[in-house]
Design goal:
32% of the residues lie in helices and 18% in strands. The strands form two sheets. Strands 1-8-2-3-7-4-6-5-9-10-11 form an eleven-stranded mixed beta sheet, with helices on both faces. It has a five-stranded parallel beta sheet with strand order 14-13-15-12-16, sandwiched between helices. The longest helix has 17 residues. The chain has two domains: 217 residues, Alpha-Beta Complex (DHBP synthase), CATH 3.90.870.10; 102 residues, 3-Layer(aba) Sandwich (Rossmann fold). It is an alpha/beta fold and 355 residues long. It contains eleven helices and 16 strands. The N and C termini lie far apart (42 Å). 52% of the residues are buried.
Length: 355
């Protein structure tokens, strides 16, 4: 039996949050909203509780979790060292969609970090998440609240779809604000390294601390060991096959229509994920909206929605890799397994897309 708590962002009902906080302290697993996506949380200092997260998600043990905190004191509890650049970024962007990878403290169990000597930590901006962490009086280890490999949840109903009857509690705090996970920045070495683009654009980070290197995994490069979530394994994938179409706007539209026609001739039920409505010939259509904020907020919801409409293949429209567009394209390419059709002449390391 899963307890569902419906809680408005500005709720002052301490009784409700204390019920969920007591479950965290008792070693249970609680799904809760953040400003990025819903998280599946447990006491970060309780190894058996954290292992339940991995079991529930079917998550590989070498895929580290993010530790969510609510105070600077908790940061000092989980990080063995906090460099000056981390303090500058925290002052500018916390609470917010930024995860910092730092040297870990001895208090953080190996199960949280995948055995690494670093810990990924962030302070979420959602009021309900912060209230839960404070009421629990524990840092909370939490990946996204979806079965591993599936699109991340931006609504409580997505969590219900994946985990009802399996987790102890789901806090329904309404739709998430941003819709893609946090940006992950590695500050454990001398040179800052972007491990995962997310809800805070790279350009904003560089405005504060200067030049940041980008890990090859962001664009699909192979790695042996993940220092942060979303780096090594296939992620964000619906059940339907996904193909991403990248290029200039007019070319994208033409190619999407061609692919839809080709798939339908092959007897496949087709869906399209596009930024504005136009005639694609597809069986099902999900329109995200044109602004990058709208696209980011809608991309996972669109993939899940088209899946529920029982399509066999989803043709997704690519966007420019500026601002939040870098995070959106990272998610779409991973969702497709890098099954990408690109306009000739555009840079590509992975160019596929055959039906």
């Amino acid at each position: 039996m899963t307890l569902i708590i419906r809680m408005a962002r500005d709720s002052t009902d301490e009784r409700l949050i204390n019920v969920a906080a007591r479950l965290i302290r008792d070693g249970r697993v609680v799904a809760f909203p953040t400003e990025t996506v819903y998280g599946l949380g447990a006491d970060a200092f309780n190894p058996p509780a954290v292992r339940k997260i991995f079991e529930l998600k079917g998550r590989p043990p070498d895929n580290p979790l993010i530790v969510h905190i609510a105070t600077e004191e908790q940061l000092r509890m989980v990080a063995g060292k906090v460099p000056e650049k981390a303090l500058k970024l925290a002052a500018e962007f916390w609470p917010g969609p930024l995860t910092l990878v730092l040297p870990r403290s001895d208090r953080v169990p190996d199960v949280v970090t995948g055995g690494l000597d670093t810990v990924a930590v962030r302070m979420p901006a959602h009021p309900v998440a912060l209230k839960l962490i404070r009421a629990s009086n524990r840092p909370i280890a939490a990946p996204s609240a979806n079965v591993s490999g599936r699109p991340s949840p931006t609504l409580a109903e997505h969590v219900v779809d994946d985990f009802y009857g399996k987790v102890d509690c789901i806090i329904d705090g309404g739709p998430t604000d941003i819709g893609v996970e946090s940006t992950v920045l590695d500050l454990s070495e001398d040179v800052p390294l972007l491990l995962r683009p997310g809800g805070l654009p790279l350009e904003e980070l560089e405005r504060v601390i200067g030049k940041i290197e980008v890990h090859p995994a962001v664009h699909g490069g192979k790695i042996d060991r993940a220092k942060a979530p979303g780096m090594k394994y296939r992620h964000y994938s619906p059940r339907a096959r996904v193909v991403v179409v990248e290029g200039e706007a007019e070319w994208r539209r033409k190619k999407i229509r061609e692919l839809v026609e080709e798939y339908r001739r092959a007897g496949l039920r087709t869906g399209v994920l596009i930024t504005e409505d136009y005639d694609t010939g597809a069986d099902e259509v999900f329109v995200t909206g044109k602004s990058m904020e709208e696209v980011a907020r809608s991309v996972f919801r669109g993939l899940r929605c088209l899946d529920k409409r029982n399509v066999d293949v989803i043709v997704a429209e690519g966007v420019e890799e500026r601002g939040l567009g870098l995070a959106v394209m990272n998610r779409l390419r991973k969702a497709s397994g890098y099954n990408v059709v690109r306009q000739r002449g555009r840079n590509s390391a992975n160019e596929r897309g055959n039906p």
